[in-house]
Protein backbone atom coordinates (compact mmCIF):
# COMPACT_ATOMS: atom_id res chain seq x y z
CA UNK A 1 0.00 0.00 0.00
CA UNK A 2 1.34 3.45 -0.85
CA UNK A 3 1.58 6.09 1.85
CA UNK A 4 1.32 9.78 1.12
CA UNK A 5 0.13 12.95 2.83
CA UNK A 6 -3.63 13.52 2.70
CA UNK A 7 -6.08 15.54 4.72
CA UNK A 8 -8.23 13.84 7.29
CA UNK A 9 -11.66 13.54 5.81
CA UNK A 10 -14.15 15.44 7.96
CA UNK A 11 -17.03 13.51 6.45
CA UNK A 12 -15.69 10.24 7.77
CA UNK A 13 -15.11 11.71 11.21
CA UNK A 14 -18.58 13.17 11.48
CA UNK A 15 -20.27 9.96 10.40
CA UNK A 16 -18.26 7.57 12.54
CA UNK A 17 -18.37 9.89 15.54
CA UNK A 18 -22.16 9.88 15.49
CA UNK A 19 -22.41 6.15 14.90
CA UNK A 20 -19.95 5.33 17.64
CA UNK A 21 -21.59 7.84 20.00
CA UNK A 22 -18.23 9.42 20.66
CA UNK A 23 -17.41 13.07 21.15
CA UNK A 24 -17.41 15.38 18.16
CA UNK A 25 -15.15 18.30 17.49
CA UNK A 26 -12.52 19.69 15.21
CA UNK A 27 -9.77 17.40 14.01
CA UNK A 28 -6.39 18.77 13.09
CA UNK A 29 -5.24 18.23 9.55
CA UNK A 30 -2.46 15.67 9.47
CA UNK A 31 -0.97 12.99 7.30
CA UNK A 32 -2.47 9.50 7.10
CA UNK A 33 -2.32 6.47 4.87
CA UNK A 34 -4.69 6.20 1.95
CA UNK A 35 -7.75 3.97 1.93
CA UNK A 36 -7.23 0.64 0.22
CA UNK A 37 -10.37 0.59 -1.90
CA UNK A 38 -9.60 -2.97 -3.02
CA UNK A 39 -9.45 -4.32 0.53
CA UNK A 40 -12.03 -6.63 2.09
CA UNK A 41 -14.06 -5.06 4.88
CA UNK A 42 -15.63 -7.11 7.67
CA UNK A 43 -18.84 -5.75 9.17
CA UNK A 44 -20.16 -7.10 12.48
CA UNK A 45 -23.67 -6.59 13.83
CA UNK A 46 -24.24 -7.14 17.53
CA UNK A 47 -26.47 -6.37 20.48
CA UNK A 48 -25.05 -3.88 22.96
CA UNK A 49 -23.31 -5.33 26.02
CA UNK A 50 -25.53 -3.28 28.32
CA UNK A 51 -28.76 -4.09 26.47
CA UNK A 52 -31.26 -5.45 29.00
CA UNK A 53 -34.19 -5.79 26.59
CA UNK A 54 -36.25 -8.97 26.28
CA UNK A 55 -34.76 -9.46 22.82
CA UNK A 56 -31.19 -9.31 24.13
CA UNK A 57 -31.95 -11.68 26.99
CA UNK A 58 -34.25 -14.30 25.54
CA UNK A 59 -34.57 -14.22 21.73
CA UNK A 60 -33.28 -17.50 20.30
CA UNK A 61 -33.92 -17.07 16.58
CA UNK A 62 -31.95 -15.37 13.82
CA UNK A 63 -32.09 -11.83 12.45
CA UNK A 64 -31.26 -11.01 8.83
CA UNK A 65 -29.68 -7.58 8.38
CA UNK A 66 -29.68 -6.23 4.83
CA UNK A 67 -26.72 -4.08 3.81
CA UNK A 68 -27.02 -1.54 0.98
CA UNK A 69 -23.88 0.21 -0.26
CA UNK A 70 -25.21 3.72 -0.76
CA UNK A 71 -21.78 5.31 -1.26
CA UNK A 72 -18.27 4.28 -2.24
CA UNK A 73 -15.12 5.72 -0.66
CA UNK A 74 -12.09 6.95 -2.58
CA UNK A 75 -8.46 6.73 -1.44
CA UNK A 76 -8.74 9.90 0.65
CA UNK A 77 -11.78 8.62 2.54
CA UNK A 78 -14.16 10.87 0.62
CA UNK A 79 -17.61 9.23 0.12
CA UNK A 80 -19.30 9.36 -3.29
CA UNK A 81 -22.94 8.31 -3.69
CA UNK A 82 -23.27 5.01 -5.58
CA UNK A 83 -24.74 5.18 -9.08
CA UNK A 84 -27.94 3.33 -8.11
CA UNK A 85 -28.63 5.87 -5.35
CA UNK A 86 -28.04 9.04 -7.34
CA UNK A 87 -30.95 11.51 -7.43
CA UNK A 88 -32.70 9.75 -4.53
CA UNK A 89 -32.58 12.70 -2.15
CA UNK A 90 -29.58 11.40 -0.18
CA UNK A 91 -27.54 14.39 1.02
CA UNK A 92 -24.09 13.26 2.15
CA UNK A 93 -22.94 16.88 2.45
CA UNK A 94 -24.73 17.03 5.80
CA UNK A 95 -21.77 15.10 7.21
CA UNK A 96 -19.58 18.20 6.79
CA UNK A 97 -21.25 20.05 9.64
CA UNK A 98 -20.81 17.77 12.68
CA UNK A 99 -24.41 16.55 12.29
CA UNK A 100 -26.66 15.20 14.99
CA UNK A 101 -28.26 11.77 14.70
CA UNK A 102 -31.55 13.42 13.68
CA UNK A 103 -29.78 15.22 10.81
CA UNK A 104 -28.31 11.97 9.49
CA UNK A 105 -31.64 10.19 9.80
CA UNK A 106 -33.50 12.92 7.92
CA UNK A 107 -30.97 13.61 5.16
CA UNK A 108 -29.39 10.18 4.62
CA UNK A 109 -31.15 7.28 6.36
CA UNK A 110 -34.78 8.08 5.48
CA UNK A 111 -34.23 8.74 1.75
CA UNK A 112 -31.82 5.79 1.57
CA UNK A 113 -34.42 3.44 3.08
CA UNK A 114 -36.97 4.58 0.49
CA UNK A 115 -34.45 4.21 -2.33
CA UNK A 116 -33.41 0.73 -1.15
CA UNK A 117 -37.01 -0.50 -1.00
CA UNK A 118 -37.41 -3.21 -3.61
CA UNK A 119 -33.67 -3.44 -4.30
CA UNK A 120 -31.64 -6.57 -3.65
CA UNK A 121 -29.31 -6.12 -0.70
CA UNK A 122 -25.60 -5.95 -1.51
CA UNK A 123 -24.94 -8.25 1.44
CA UNK A 124 -26.87 -9.87 4.29
CA UNK A 125 -25.66 -10.45 7.83
CA UNK A 126 -27.43 -13.25 9.71
CA UNK A 127 -27.15 -12.62 13.43
CA UNK A 128 -27.85 -15.35 15.99
CA UNK A 129 -27.18 -16.08 19.65
CA UNK A 130 -23.62 -17.21 20.32
CA UNK A 131 -22.05 -17.51 23.76
CA UNK A 132 -25.04 -15.76 25.31
CA UNK A 133 -25.04 -12.76 22.95
CA UNK A 134 -26.59 -12.08 19.55
CA UNK A 135 -24.17 -11.20 16.76
CA UNK A 136 -23.24 -11.89 13.15
CA UNK A 137 -20.71 -10.68 10.59
CA UNK A 138 -19.87 -10.70 6.92
CA UNK A 139 -16.79 -9.94 4.82
CA UNK A 140 -17.16 -7.91 1.61
CA UNK A 141 -14.46 -7.73 -1.06
CA UNK A 142 -13.69 -4.23 -2.38
CA UNK A 143 -16.08 -3.08 0.31
CA UNK A 144 -14.94 0.43 1.27
CA UNK A 145 -18.00 2.66 1.48
CA UNK A 146 -21.02 3.81 3.44
CA UNK A 147 -23.63 1.14 4.11
CA UNK A 148 -27.27 1.45 5.04
CA UNK A 149 -28.12 -1.44 7.35
CA UNK A 150 -31.74 -2.55 7.68
CA UNK A 151 -32.43 -5.34 10.22
CA UNK A 152 -35.53 -7.34 9.30
CA UNK A 153 -38.40 -7.67 11.77
CA UNK A 154 -38.69 -10.96 13.67
CA UNK A 155 -40.96 -12.46 16.32
CA UNK A 156 -41.21 -15.22 18.90
CA UNK A 157 -44.13 -16.62 20.90
CA UNK A 158 -44.59 -13.49 23.00
CA UNK A 159 -43.20 -10.49 21.09
CA UNK A 160 -42.70 -8.88 17.71
CA UNK A 161 -39.31 -7.19 17.28
CA UNK A 162 -38.45 -4.34 14.94
CA UNK A 163 -35.17 -2.47 14.58
CA UNK A 164 -33.86 0.99 13.74
CA UNK A 165 -32.07 1.25 10.37
CA UNK A 166 -28.93 3.39 10.19
CA UNK A 167 -25.63 3.78 8.34
CA UNK A 168 -22.07 2.67 8.96
CA UNK A 169 -18.77 3.86 7.48
CA UNK A 170 -16.19 1.25 6.49
CA UNK A 171 -13.26 1.49 6.98
CA UNK A 172 -12.59 3.72 9.99
CA UNK A 173 -9.75 4.48 12.44
CA UNK A 174 -9.29 5.11 16.15
CA UNK A 175 -8.29 8.70 15.40
CA UNK A 176 -11.46 9.37 13.42
CA UNK A 177 -13.69 7.72 16.02
CA UNK A 178 -12.15 9.38 19.07
CA UNK A 179 -10.70 12.62 17.72
CA UNK A 180 -7.89 12.22 20.25
CA UNK A 181 -4.46 13.46 19.17
CA UNK A 182 -1.97 10.63 19.02
CA UNK A 183 -4.62 7.95 18.50
CA UNK A 184 -3.95 5.25 15.93
CA UNK A 185 -4.49 6.64 12.43
CA UNK A 186 -4.45 3.29 10.68
CA UNK A 187 -7.54 2.52 8.65
CA UNK A 188 -9.40 -0.43 10.18
CA UNK A 189 -11.36 -2.62 7.84
CA UNK A 190 -13.14 -4.52 10.63
CA UNK A 191 -16.07 -2.37 11.76
CA UNK A 192 -19.17 -3.03 13.84
CA UNK A 193 -22.52 -1.57 14.75
CA UNK A 194 -25.16 -2.20 17.41
CA UNK A 195 -28.69 -3.27 16.51
CA UNK A 196 -31.37 -1.64 18.63
CA UNK A 197 -34.53 -3.75 19.08
CA UNK A 198 -38.01 -2.38 19.71
CA UNK A 199 -40.36 -5.01 21.11
CA UNK A 200 -44.14 -5.15 20.89
CA UNK A 201 -46.03 -7.78 22.93
CA UNK A 202 -48.27 -10.11 20.94
CA UNK A 203 -51.85 -9.61 22.15
CA UNK A 204 -54.29 -12.52 21.82
CA UNK A 205 -57.82 -11.18 21.49
CA UNK A 206 -60.63 -13.29 22.99
CA UNK A 207 -63.95 -12.77 21.16
CA UNK A 208 -67.05 -11.88 23.18
CA UNK A 209 -69.01 -14.62 21.43
CA UNK A 210 -66.88 -17.64 20.56
CA UNK A 211 -69.68 -19.17 18.46
CA UNK A 212 -68.62 -19.20 14.81
CA UNK A 213 -70.87 -17.79 12.14
CA UNK A 214 -69.46 -20.10 9.46
CA UNK A 215 -68.77 -23.79 9.48
CA UNK A 216 -65.06 -23.46 8.72
CA UNK A 217 -64.38 -20.53 11.04
CA UNK A 218 -61.51 -20.79 13.52
CA UNK A 219 -62.41 -19.67 17.03
CA UNK A 220 -59.69 -18.28 19.32
CA UNK A 221 -60.35 -19.00 22.99
CA UNK A 222 -57.50 -18.21 25.34
CA UNK A 223 -54.41 -19.80 23.83
CA UNK A 224 -56.32 -22.72 22.27
CA UNK A 225 -57.48 -22.74 18.68
CA UNK A 226 -60.60 -24.77 17.91
CA UNK A 227 -61.44 -25.46 14.30
CA UNK A 228 -65.17 -25.83 13.76
CA UNK A 229 -66.35 -28.10 10.97
CA UNK A 230 -70.07 -27.52 11.55
CA UNK A 231 -72.15 -24.61 12.88
CA UNK A 232 -72.67 -26.16 16.33
CA UNK A 233 -72.55 -23.58 19.15
CA UNK A 234 -69.95 -24.09 21.87
CA UNK A 235 -72.17 -22.79 24.65
CA UNK A 236 -76.01 -22.82 24.82
CA UNK A 237 -78.44 -22.87 21.92
CA UNK A 238 -79.67 -25.79 19.88
CA UNK A 239 -77.67 -27.47 17.15
CA UNK A 240 -79.01 -26.94 13.66
CA UNK A 241 -78.53 -30.39 12.18
CA UNK A 242 -81.33 -30.31 9.62
CA UNK A 243 -82.59 -33.76 10.81
CA UNK A 244 -86.33 -34.68 10.96
CA UNK A 245 -87.99 -35.26 14.37
CA UNK A 246 -89.97 -38.30 13.06
CA UNK A 247 -87.12 -40.82 13.52
CA UNK A 248 -86.68 -39.60 17.08
CA UNK A 249 -90.41 -40.12 17.80
CA UNK A 250 -90.35 -43.57 16.21
CA UNK A 251 -87.38 -44.58 18.33
CA UNK A 252 -89.12 -43.31 21.47
CA UNK A 253 -92.32 -45.22 20.70
CA UNK A 254 -90.33 -48.36 19.94
CA UNK A 255 -88.49 -48.03 23.24
CA UNK A 256 -91.76 -47.69 25.19
CA UNK A 257 -93.27 -50.66 23.34
CA UNK A 258 -90.24 -52.79 24.14
CA UNK A 259 -90.37 -51.85 27.82
CA UNK A 260 -94.09 -52.75 27.83
CA UNK A 261 -93.37 -56.20 26.38
CA UNK A 262 -90.74 -56.82 29.02
CA UNK A 263 -93.15 -55.81 31.79
CA UNK A 264 -95.91 -58.01 30.30
CA UNK A 265 -93.49 -60.96 30.11
CA UNK A 266 -92.52 -60.71 33.78
CA UNK A 267 -96.20 -60.31 34.73
CA UNK A 268 -97.11 -63.57 32.93
CA UNK A 269 -94.11 -65.27 34.49
CA UNK A 270 -95.32 -64.28 37.96
CA UNK A 271 -98.87 -65.57 37.32
CA UNK A 272 -97.62 -68.93 36.00
CA UNK A 273 -95.46 -69.33 39.07
CA UNK A 274 -98.47 -68.87 41.37
CA UNK A 275 -100.52 -71.43 39.42
CA UNK A 276 -97.74 -74.01 39.70
CA UNK A 277 -97.43 -73.47 43.44
CA UNK A 278 -101.20 -73.98 43.97
TrEMBL record:
Source superkingdom: Bacteria
Annotated signal sequence range: 1-31
PROSITE patterns: PROKAR_LIPOPROTEIN (PS51257)
Lineage: Bacteria, Bacillati, Bacillota, Clostridia, Lachnospirales
Record keyword Membrane present: yes
Identification of the protein by name: LPXTG-motif cell wall anchor domain-containing protein
Keywords associated with the record: Membrane, Signal, Transmembrane, Transmembrane helix
Organism: Pseudobutyrivibrio xylanivorans DSM 14809
Transmembrane domains' residue ranges: 245-266
Amino acid sequence: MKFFGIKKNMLAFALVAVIAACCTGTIDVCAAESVNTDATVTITAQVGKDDTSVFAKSFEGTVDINLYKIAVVDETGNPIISDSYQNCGIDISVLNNSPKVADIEKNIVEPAVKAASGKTADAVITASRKDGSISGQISIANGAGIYLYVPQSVSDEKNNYSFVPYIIFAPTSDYIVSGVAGADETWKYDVSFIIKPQETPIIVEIPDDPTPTHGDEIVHWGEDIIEMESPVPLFGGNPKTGDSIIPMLACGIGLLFGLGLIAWYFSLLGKNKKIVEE
